[in-house]
Specification:
Blueprint (H helix, E strand, L loop, with lengths): L1 E7 L5 E7 L15 E2 L8 H10 L14 H15 L9 H4 L2 E7 L6 E7 L1 E2 L12 E4 L5 E7 L18 H11 L2 E6 L29 H15 L5 E8 L8 E4 L11 H12 L5 E3 L14 H6 L18 E7 L6 H15 L2
Parallel strand pairs: 8-9, 8-10, 10-13, 11-12
Antiparallel strand pairs: 1-2, 3-6, 4-5, 5-7, 7-9, 11-13
Helix pairs in contact: 1-4, 2-5, 4-8, 6-8
Amino acid sequence: MFALRTLSLAGGAALTAFVLTVVPRAPAHAAPAAPATLSCPTSTTLEALVDCISNQMPQHDSNGYVAPSATEAADFAQVVTSMLEGNCALSLPASISANMAIRSFTDSSDNRSYCVLMEVKSSVTSGVVDKGWGTFITYNAGTRRISHHAPHPKFDTSTTGASEGDAYSQREAVRIFKKTDSRSFLMAGARRSANLIDSTCQSGNWEADCSHNTNNMFYAANVALNNFYTARSEDWTAIEWHAKAASTCSNDIFMSPGRNTKPAVGSKLALLKAAIETQKPAWVVETTGGTSSCSLTATTNTVGRMLNGVTSNVCNTAATTTSGKFIHIEQTTGLLATLDATATAWANAVVSAFP
């Protein structure tokens, strides 16, 4: 800017002149992006909805997973209980309402009404939810007290971190949930390698890996499920759907009750094994306690330990009994290449084993 100034000269003379004064400008900063609501509004089926949610969860090495506080986890569990009781038109607790939404969802393929609890707020990274807390879906008219779980969701197997994903297992799980008239579906909210930080629960596992931690909504939901059915003296089963590399174990399917023991004759796992062998006689299906050398026994799975009766310190305490409430299924990833056929075979097996 220009300013009029009087300058002193030698001998006491004065000169009045316009002088250019440079005023520094404050550095320009881009305005923060406004929070977005990622509610997957164009999804008309549960399959499409789960695909959409998987795409917008914190991804590999993003450091985008945020562990919930004790209050947030307790409030999430409270909502899970309300949904199991048949409630969907409820106000979310204040601790989670800013990040999550609950709504009724009518699937266009079966015209059934489901209740969906999902994370929707995106303000940190465009197109990605802020916390990575997860999704819970109930079907109030479900006739089977089964909850189908996807603890290690991964949508795109071609992306970085390919070795850590359970290749589309969440897509399989939601299909089986729909086809079997089951009561609920649960999916973790972040890829397990979202934060490459060591777990404080079980060293050697990542912070966002809900199979080896307790400070997450996935574990809180399982506690709520167990408390709900126990209070009603109702038997129930959580089935975890996983995928494995063909080189990991020499079988197609490996099933575990969360302990490295042979399933009892007539147990849920034994019945489900027989049922899937009937559906797919060419598959090599093995379980714990047999001749298989497969190491994927799920004995360190924190949810499995809790459901098998460990009441404290599930991070470090192995289960000594098997309750029948927990079934862990590993599948060679190639089987999921024919997703609909594989999911249909499993659905038929579940219907047969859980009449």
